[in-house]
Amino acid sequence: MAYEHDKSSLGDLILIFRRSILESIREEGLKHDLTLSHIEVLNFIGPARRETMKNIALYLKITPPSATEIVAEMEKKGLVKRESDENDRRVVFIVLTDIAKKLFVSVSRRKDLILKKMTSKLNKKDCKSLERIIRILIAN
Description:
- By secondary structure, this protein is mainly alpha-helical.
- The chain is about 65% helix and about 10% strand.
- α1 runs antiparallel to α5 (about 100-120) and α3 (about 55-60) crosses α4.
- The chain contains six helices and three strands.
- The chain has a three-stranded antiparallel sheet with strand order 1-3-2.
- It has one domain: Winged helix-like DNA-binding domain superfamily/Winged helix DNA-binding domain (Arc Repressor Mutant, subunit A, Orthogonal Bundle).
């Protein structure tokens, strides 16, 4: 039996929306043997940035040892590398490799297509309103 979204609460609808996006992104990740955590790290670091393990853990809302595990898996796959800070050798940054930068583009395109398909049902004004509302909801 089909799930009736009309009777769902706002909270349920937000979770259903999130799950739809994540499932599509996960499908793209599976093509490249990536988990959702790997994809989140790709998105967080991005092709032009470098981040510390502490910031990665904070972003993922996990413990530093858990972030280290995820980054170590990604390092084994050749997706990230560690770079020491030139001014303080104790500080280590995580950066994307060229392979990961290409995957970042692929996953980003997939995410954009998914969202474009979902929002194509809305007019321009509704899209702007949705964006404004989401920004309000996620603001700290």
